Amino acid sequence: MVIKVLLVMLFLLFNRSFPFQQEQDNSDLVSYFSSKAIPFTDASDLNLFINECGQKQLVLLGEASHGTHEYYHWRAEISKRLITEKNFNFIAVEGDWASIYRLNKYVKGLENAKSSAKEVLQSFNRWPEWMWANTNILELAEWMKEYNKKLPPEKKVGFYGFDVYGQWQAMDDLLAWSENNMNDKHNDLITKLNCFAGYRTDEWQYAREVIEGKTSCEEELKQIVEILRNHGESIDSSEMKSYFRAKQNALVVQNAESFYRLAVQNNILSWNSRVDHMWLTITRLLDFYGQNAKGIIWAHNTHVGDSRATSMRTINQYNIGELSRTNLGEENVFIAGFGTYRGKVNAGTEWGARMRIMKVPKAQKGSLDYYLGQVPQERFFILFNKNDRKEQLLAGNYLGHRAIGVTYNPQWESGNYVPTLPAFRYDALIYFRETSALKTVR
User: Fold this and answer.
1) Fewest CB atoms within 10 A around its CB: which of 108, 153, 210, 222?
2) Residues 320, 302: Cα–Cα separation, whole Å
3) What is the pTM of this model?
4) Which has the closest alpha carbon to 60: 433, 373, 426, 440?
5) CATH fold for domain 2-85+294-435
6) pLDDT tens for residues 195-217?
7) d(CA 407, CA 438)
């Protein structure tokens, strides 16, 4: 927990020190955004947005917080249209692989799946539970279940988590699979995993002990991934789905160890190691779904908005937005950021604290969110193009874009803004004058 708090503080201090426009008013910017704003009231009003991104290989849908109803609701509405009209194959979210896979089993109607989406979501017990155990995800999961019923197994739309956390459940899932599918290596896997498994109650204690001189588990976990990789050479097509899941569980354990170990040494390297795992998972999903696969990515704006157009670039941090564009080509990727002027949000005052519904104050004057808040429409989207990237109003000035995580303190509001060149960071912005908190599943 201490390390996570330090990372948050460093983020706040860095963004305070990075210069971005803080004028009290800029009527030219307000006029510019107003001229491009496209209002919407329901999903049928998103035709221009859907047509712009529907042919891309990846559509990245952001959020300015992890606890806002409007972000989840409209990402779901966009995702439904991309699935039904543009044949997208999967949704991948900023969540744990092992726990989110239970939702994947449910929406696909796979064997041993839970009886309802609510039952799945109520089983999520790692903080912050509200990120996925909320009514927006519940509704989307039930919709996907119904949609998938009419499709053959190979065409069913999947729902996955791509984050590096949740290593202990991934370890359990891996061993359950190896006992039934790779029995000759099962005990060897247990032995190698025991190095890391001994810290099941406190992965940060493991990281601290490594810094103090204890030998890390890096080599043992690397060997586990290699064992899984070699096993893949001898399996037939009927086993590929379960093997894919098992190998992903092994990668989660390996990369989680790396993330925690690096976090107590260098927060930039640990951030990038987490991003590398996210990107690896996304590319594995694209490969798994085969030629012409198309994916929808849900994650915070700090992950999906191209890091090269933010203060992150000055400290050599990157994210999946940048990696998507550089690896797949900008013409094959569409990035949408989200924002609000004011509202309410689910968050904790510190890591692991009880969830509270907090007030999100009016956007700081001079920020991107402030100027968007002066646009006459209550709810709108903006599509950026090459002409916007030549416009001096957008190309020459960094604007602070508010970012709220799972922990939040409105008293630190001035530090919750990422200096941003919006037309370069995103292909679109979706904005709400006022937002509300998520409703949790009970």
Assistant:
1) 153
2) 9
3) 0.94
4) 426
5) EreA/ChaN-like  fold (3.40.1660)
6) 999 999 899 999 999 999 999 99
7) 15
